[in-house]
Amino acid sequence: MTLDDKIAWRPFVADTFSMVTFSWVVGGAMELCSGMALEQCVRSRAAMTVVNLLSGRPYGLFRDYCLRRCHVDESSSPVTKAVVDICANVSFSIPLYAGQAYLVAGLDGEQLLTSTAAIAGLVIVVGRPYGWYLEKVRDWLNVPKETD
User: Fold this and answer.
1) Distance (Å, rounded) from C-alpha 83 to C-alpha 128?
2) Is the N end or the C end of the chain the one with fewer CB atoms within 10 Å?
């Protein structure tokens, strides 16, 4: 395996690791605070781990696309970065969460509506912190920036 082959795996590992760890900590806390039973929360987080393993890198690519499309770079204002991160996170995360909460965690209609609304609110609040965390994990793993 060459150095270039090893570098090619870094974005996948960084994006997947950041999504799994952020989801367990922040998503789990929010689910418990919204009234979900511990057992349901654990089932939901376990299911989301599978989803996050499959969607971590696609989300990273989607976020990168959104940033490029909106001409966001390191010199962009914090507000611009936040708006793009929030929009990318909401449009990607909410459908995934609602689907798994219904199909896997077995939430009834009222629980699904409550938890999805809570997660939507959470995703808006944590959109930029997650984007920042993803950037830090990528830096930590020496993921080359697209402009490198």
Assistant:
1) 8
2) C
DSSP 64: H
Longest dimension (CA), the chain: 52
**pTM for this predicted structure:** 0.78
Say whether 144 sits in a helix, a strand or coil: coil
pLDDT 10s per residue in the chain (148 long)? 555 555 678 999 999 999 999 989 888 887 888 888 999 989 988 988 988 899 999 999 999 999 999 999 989 999 999 999 999 999 998 888 888 777 777 778 888 888 888 878 888 999 999 999 999 999 999 998 764 4
